[in-house]
Amino acid sequence: MPVPATHQRRRGTVHRSTPAVDIVIPVHNEQADLETSVRRLDAYLCERFPVPWRITIADNASTDGTWATARRLAAGSERVSAIHLDQKGRGRALRASWSASDAPVVAYMDVDLSTDLDALLPLVAPLLSGHSDLAIGSRLALGAQVVRGPKRELISRCYNLLLKAALRNGFSDAQCGFKAVRTDVARALLPLVEDEGWFFDTEMLVLAERNGLRIHEVPVDWTDDPDSRVHIASTVAADLEGVWRLVRSFAIGRGRLPAEARVSGQADPGRGNLSSQLASFAVIGVVCTVLFALLFALLAGPLGPVPADLVALLACGVANTAANRRLTFAVRGRGGVARQYGAALAVAALPLVATVLTLWALGSAGVRALGVQLLVLTAVNAAATLGRFALLRSWVFAPVRRP
Prior knowledge:
By secondary structure, the protein is α/β, with parallel strands linked by helices. The chain folds into two domains: 8-261, Spore Coat Polysaccharide Biosynthesis Protein SpsA, Chain A (Alpha-Beta Complex); 274-396, no CATH class. 53% of the residues lie in helices and 13% in strands. It has 13 helices and ten strands. It has helices spanning 31-48, 66-75, 90-100, 120-128, 150-167, 183-189, 200-210, 232-251, 274-303, 305-328, 337-347, 349-364, 370-396; strands at 8-11, 21-27, 53-60, 80-85, 105-109, 134-138, 145-147, 178-182, 215-219, 221-223. The protein has an eight-stranded mixed sheet, with helices on both faces. The protein has a two-stranded parallel sheet with strand order 7-10. Strand 2 (21-27), helix 1 and strand 3 (53-60) form a beta-alpha-beta unit.
């Protein structure tokens, strides 16, 4: 999508050399905090950041004095520039500023500077060296230090688990407002990104990973801004809508970069990525294991343990096969579907035999307590899924080799 023609740019004297990193701060009605945050960031970069840089304030349709403040800051420093868009949207602001940037690496951070700025150099260094294509700050990676309320912590973790279940992504934190991308990669990906709001960078990351691009994660120290004006309910609703849109889009084969838009060093995104498949299989397995436990608990009373086990396994086997066919192994269309479902249900004999033998052993030992049966069966069923994965990958959903 082209940069809106209505945007305006104001800057002081440009660096004698092109900046290596263009750090964008998207803002909407941030008059109260903008100047303090920009001056703090500027002071930090002058003292601690060893590569040429620029700060770009991206104002998206502010109705207070934000744009006037941005223009004043840009006019007063050769290190600061500002753009203004007449339409609201964080994604729209990033699209416009990144598309127009002359720096080889573009980044963004939230105006509240919740992320410790010491993470900035580790964020952009792999991009400047060519090691990675995108980089994200993660509040959920090992080593991160996060201070925030339980409500936001729960929402963040649930959202990222939902992403993994629905889109089988490998990155840990989609929402942290601290990201960077090589500019050539951004320009290749931006035409695929539809969202113009808060879901913009999540969508970009999912598309990047789907196309085999390399995403570097940096654990960050992050302190929640108690004055945050993000409307949680509407943001969550928009994010869920975005996730569903991507699921539907990927199901019909969209979301791939055209061959002419591929960036240097991009990996083949094919469907043989073992780590991605394992992550997706694990999430689907957890969901189906919980579903199995619930069905067994509901049916064990009226049907008895063995019939309840058989019915629960059959229902979960069908659901598991459908989910893994579509999400884990990226199989599309109806070709071979009967064989695949038949083979997958045959593979389900592994946990079936294991759990039936377990029930027999429990019965022989005189164990009749539902809680004990449920606990043991759940553990055995979960362990048996490891063998199922190997068979599904190597046999059931293996790509057809044509002579």
